[in-house]
């Protein structure tokens, strides 16, 4: 890492985004500004999946361990889970949302015509990592995945994987990244028979070919219950991150005994697809923080514009400008400290606020603002309405 570059913990401190405390190792305390980034990212992810037929659910964090025994996770994953006795029974904090999503699936009779059923969930997950390996937002014990479980008929796998690859490409493009694809195949420690694995791997490979994306193979790196497509990006520092994943699962519908009623009236097993676009949101925001070095694009910036009155005399006008921006849903602050304009401009640039709007006598007379960007560029005077139009363009373009 270039020594000039800062890590997300340092940037998080300087920009007042989040902090870490010894009382909760491996968990993030989100401050108002960091939580604004988190919520903005989440709203974006919701907005694009809601139009693609996803329905959001929420399931309990604390469940009886026997659910994970049934799903098969206990055998492969219990060391990574927080398990403890409540009254006379073992309970676990969920390390993943999958088994519970199957309970929602089987809460009523599902017909072949109900599929695909796409259930998204942003549930809080816990995994037991050793204290020694915890590190900022990258290795945590408590996190949230932008998770979804899609229940499909076998004949729908291909189309659904195609849709998902398109979705991944769209999301990453809009965030300014070029995704790379890998097909991860059967590991040594795997559940299920060879034929099912071969078919599943062939399905994923066909979808990759149909989508005309370049991909490589990751031999034996699939999940224990099925093969997967891993999606990687490179950040501004040339580091490789695995974020999104699309996993085919033939085992969990079996172990959780879920079924749909087929055309012929018979019971059939659906196939389950697990997918995350960003993976852990905590880790993803950590990566974005370092990728942008705190200079978040306008749409993600916790404060998008700051109004800087030249002196006390213009506080009332500055408040009026700030109010107008607020009602246009721009995240705005007002700096009416008793400091020089130079100091205020410098501080707003250090806080990486995209726009500083200077207001004095001339601006008040003409109902305008003098806009400058954090890179020091002067954009001249414009009406508040024109400024709103300008910043909305930035927000829409995600620039
Ligand atoms: Zn899952």
Can you describe what's shown?
The protein has 399 residues and is α+β, with helices and mostly antiparallel strands. It has 2 domains: 8-292, BirA Bifunctional Protein, domain 2; 298-397, Rossmann fold (3-Layer(aba) Sandwich). The chain is built from 13 helices and 21 strands. Strands 3, 7, 8, 9, 10, 11, 12, 13 and 16 form a 9-stranded mixed sheet that branches. Strand 17 (305-309), helix 10 (315-327) and strand 18 (332-334) form a beta-alpha-beta unit. The model has no long low-confidence stretch (mean pLDDT 94). The site of zinc ion has 5 residues, from loops.
Keywords for this structure?
alpha+beta; BirA Bifunctional Protein, domain 2; Rossmann fold; 2 domains; nine-stranded mixed beta sheet; five-stranded mixed beta sheet
What can be said about this structure in brief?
By secondary structure, the protein is α+β, with helices and mostly antiparallel strands.
Blueprint of the fold:
Blueprint: H1 8-14, E1 18-19, E2 29-30, H2 32-50, E3 54-57, E4 62-64, H3 66-71, H4 73-77, E5 83-86, E6 89-93, H5 98-105, E7 117-121, E8 124-126, E9 142-152, H6 157-174, E10 180-184, H7 194-210, E11 215-218, E12 228-234, E13 240-249, H8 252-255, E14 260-261, E15 267-268, E16 271-280, H9 281-292, E17 305-309, H10 315-327, E18 332-334, H11 341-350, E19 355-359, H12 361-366, E20 368-373, E21 378-383, H13 384-397
Parallel strand pairs: 3-7, 10-11, 17-18, 17-19
Antiparallel strand pairs: 1-2, 4-6, 5-6, 7-9, 8-9, 9-16, 10-12, 12-13, 13-16, 14-15, 19-20, 20-21
Helix pairs in contact: 1-9, 6-7
Family: Belongs to the class-II aminoacyl-tRNA synthetase family.
Protein name: Threonine--tRNA ligase
InterPro entries: aa-tRNA-synt_IIb (IPR002314), aa-tRNA-synth_II (IPR006195), aa-tRNA-synth_II/BPL/LPL (IPR045864), Anticodon-bd (IPR004154), Anticodon-bd_dom_sf (IPR036621), Thr-tRNA-ligase_IIa (IPR002320), ThrRS_anticodon (IPR047246), ThrRS_core (IPR033728)
